[in-house]
Structures are given as structure tokens and as C-alpha cells.
Amino acid sequence: MIPTRRLLLALPALLPAAALAQPAVTVDAPWTRAAGQGGTGAGYMSLRAPGGDRLLSATSPAATRVELHTHIRDGEVMRMRAVEAIEVPAGGAVTLAPGGLHLMLIGLTRPLAVGETVPVTLRFERGGEVQVALAVQAAGARGPAAHRH
Ligand SMILES: [Cu+2]
User: Fold this and answer.
1) How far is the CA of 41 from the centre of ligand 1 (A)?
2) Domains of the chain
3) Contact yes or no for 111/139 (Cβ under 8 A)
4) What's the 3-state SS for 75-137?
5) What is the 6 CA–ligand 1 centroid distance (Å)?
6) Ligand 1 midpoint to CA 73 (Å)
7) CA 38 → CA 62, 84, 117, distances in Å?
8) Å from CA of 3 to ligand 1 middle
9) pLDDT tier, 148 (very low <50, low <70, confident <90, very high otherwise)
10) C-beta separation of 54 from 85 below 8 A
11) What span, in angstroms and rounded, lies between the C-alpha atoms of 83 and 111?
12) What does the pLDDT look like over 33-83, one tens digit per residue?
């Protein structure tokens, strides 16, 4: 009885430490599409940060460089544009998805094959570095061809 009682009494004191140990940023469903070496790829995912955060940059061993992009409407055409940061709203989430915000993997150093994963390091203003693995889906998966712009 006594050890159990002690444990229960100790729990409230442990909770704040446990909360602090939680990652500041959580990443849901990171994915990309199959692509050839030397080409470009796009990374998609949902980002959540209880207190809000900003994604500042990203790197991957599979790409020469990674940029943060969004799509903007230019007349009848959707064009990609680099952004300095991607805001993660406090208490909400931001979704990187085809036709919107995405990571642009430029100069792929190897082919991205279906079923593989692509490691990416995200760097957040508050949360620091977060490692994610983009699951490679088929080249046409939820791709621009399926979207009407
Ligand atoms: Cu792009």
C-alpha cells in the first residue's frame, strides 16, 4: 500500500516535467512522391505545435537543398514561390499538401522509390531540429493532375 500511495502522491510533481519532455512540434503523415535522381521532389505533412512555432528551414541527404514553398495564383496559373518560414499556429496545425505549402527537394541525390522513406531534418524557431521520414508514394499520388487549379 505504501509504495503505491507514494507513487500516486509523486505523480502530480512528475506531470510538469513530463509535459516539458514532450516534443514542441509533432509531425503527422509526412510523405512525398516517387521521383528520379537529379529531379525535384515535394514533401508534405501536417505540423502541430501547442504553443505555436515557425518552420525556418529543412535539409535532407536526398537533396542538394530543400526550400520552403507555397503556391500562388498568377492569373490562370498556380506558381510556386519560396517562403522564408512556415507558421505553425498555436493550438492548431498547418498542412503541407499538393497545391499549397510544401518542402521543395531540389537536386535529388538519389531516386525516390515507392515504399522507401526519405529522411528530412526540419529546423523550427522554438522546437529546434525535428527528424521526419517522408514515405514515398506513387508518382501520381494526390498529384497536381488530380487537382483542378
Ligand atoms: Cu515547390
Assistant:
1) 8
2) 23-146 (2.60.40.1890)
3) no
4) CCEEEEEECCCEEECECCEEEECCCCCEEEEEEECCCECCCCEEEEEEEECCCEEEEEEEEEE
5) 55
6) 14
7) 10, 24, 17
8) 57
9) very low
10) yes
11) 26
12) 999 999 999 999 999 999 999 999 999 999 999 999 999 999 999 899 999
Using the mean position of ligand 1's atoms as its centre, give its distance from the Cα of residue 147 in Å: 16
Ligand 1: centre distance to CA 53 (Å): 21
Using the mean position of ligand 1's atoms as its centre, give its distance from the Cα of residue 31 in Å: 14
Taking the centre of ligand 1 as the mean of its atom positions, its distance from the CA of residue 105, in whole angstroms, is 8
Interval between CA 33 and ligand 1 midpoint (Å)? 13
Cell numbers at residue 103, please? Answer: 518542402
Pick from 133, 47, 54: nearest CA to 97: 47
Per-residue pLDDT at 24: 82
Would you tell me how many other CB atoms lie within 10 Å of the CB of residue 139?
Answer: 13
Instruction: State pLDDT tens for residues 109-121.
Output: 999 999 999 999 9
